[in-house]
Structures are given as C-alpha cells and as structure tokens.
TrEMBL record:
It comes from Diabrotica virgifera virgifera. One of its GO terms (molecular function) is serine-type endopeptidase activity. Residues 1-70 form the Peptidase S1 domain. Keywords: Disulfide bond. Belongs to the peptidase S1 family. CLIP subfamily. GO terms for biological process: proteolysis. PROSITE patterns: TRYPSIN_DOM. This is Chymotrypsin-like elastase family member 3A. The keyword Metal-binding does not apply. The gene is LOC114348767. The keyword Iron does not apply. Gene3D superfamilies: Trypsin-like serine proteases. InterPro entries: Peptidase_S1_PA, Peptidase_S1_PA_chymotrypsin, Ser/Thr_Proteases_Immune/Dev, Trypsin_dom.
C-alpha cells in the first residue's frame, strides 16, 4: 500500500482504480515521462485533506501483471 496526501488535494467517490503517477524527468524518454506507481484503492471521504488516500502498489503486482497481460 502507498499512502499519499497533500493539502487541498484529495480523490473522491468514483476514483477507485485511477492511477497514481510520478513524473520522471530523468527517464531519458521524452515520450514516457510518467510512471504509474499506484492504483487508487480507497480513501476516507471526499475532500478530506487531513487523511491520506490509499493506493495499491503496482510494483508489488508487476509479476502478476506481466504474466497475465503479456502471456
């Protein structure tokens, strides 16, 4: 799990399954500068900026993803 939070930023109902992306300015590939590191799992309401949002870690499931998406 990945917990994230920042003042005035929050996800809301219906956002489950959305990506958590990080910007990789040093990726060396100008066509792919963002990396998906998490998938929105749940939060504690909508607009509750004092509580973290919880994401499932993509790296934890990478083997399963590769085995099932690219068999």
């Amino acid at each position: 799990m990945i917990c994230v939070g920042r003042n005035s930023i929050d996800d809301c109902q219906g956002d489950s399954g959305s990506p958590l992306q990080v910007y990789r300015k040093d990726s060396g590939n100008k066509n792919c500068m963002y990396e998906v590191v998490g998938i929105s799992a749940f939060g504690f309401g909508c607009g509750w900026t004092q509580d973290p949002q919880v994401f499932t870690s993509v790296s934890y499931f990478i083997k399963w993803i590769e085995d099932n998406v690219w068999p």
